[in-house]
Amino acid sequence: MNCENPNLKSLDEDVLYHLGLSTKTVDFKKHFGDVKFVCTGGSAHRIKDFAHQLAKKAGIHTELPNLASKGGRFAYICVISCSFVFKQHGMGTPSLSILLHELFKLLHYAECTDVTFIRLGTSGGLGVQPGTLVITTEALNTEFKPFYELRILGKTVNRPSYMDQTLVEELYSLAKSLPENMPVIKGKTVCANDFYEEQARLDGAFCSFTEQEKLSYLHEAHKLGVRNFEMECTCFAAQCRMAGIRGE
């Protein structure tokens, strides 16, 4: 777990504003030191439902409170003696980036090791059967490049958004063995900064391209191995990579 910001060492108190937690009032190691898996998703109710399903399978029947309620931004739930954390991150890379910064610091202060992050969510499929589970092999921007682009102090910074291929294969193997027998594939995922125009949709309030231009773009994406579009994967992959965390 790498938090390579030297400024953190000089802080008398670090307030994780959007989680509603502070290093002065919370013993991070005591409460979160056992965390091994973090599951994130855009929707609060979906991530809560998923947490309840896992708790039920583990024989846990107590309430699962939102531990980030004071922050007023995210839903945050711990399950199974805090080995699993479930976190709702909102929609798009800006919201996800805020969450990841604060989650990484939380895990850093808790002195966690060997943590795996998994992002769950809906996406727009490309040439796949509806309901297909896509395991992302590479996170691309809308130019089909494997980078998460930021502008820091007015300068463009491109951070590689490669996925952990060992984790990709592990999850693919597990998904294929599920009794539900759902369709599962591996493929590249495009991260857009918008739900409508950047994902080549024709039904937004604005549209500057034709249907033929849309189809040409999507055909190019499919030929490159892209199988779905969403709005978080480059940020997720790049930030996990910087933190030294396995993420998919």
From TrEMBL:
Entries under Pfam families matching the protein: PNP_UDP_1
Domain (Nucleoside phosphorylase) ranges: 36-246
One of the GO BP terms on file: nucleotide catabolic process
InterPro entries: Nucleoside_phosphorylase_d (IPR000845), Nucleoside_phosphorylase_sf (IPR035994), Uridine_phosphorylase_euk (IPR010059)
Residue positions binding substrate: 199, 201
GO molecular function (one): uridine phosphorylase activity
Highest taxon of source: Eukaryota
GO CC field: cytosol
Positions with a binding annotation for phosphate: 73, 119-122
Family from the record: Belongs to the PNP/UDP phosphorylase family.
The protein, known as: Uridine phosphorylase
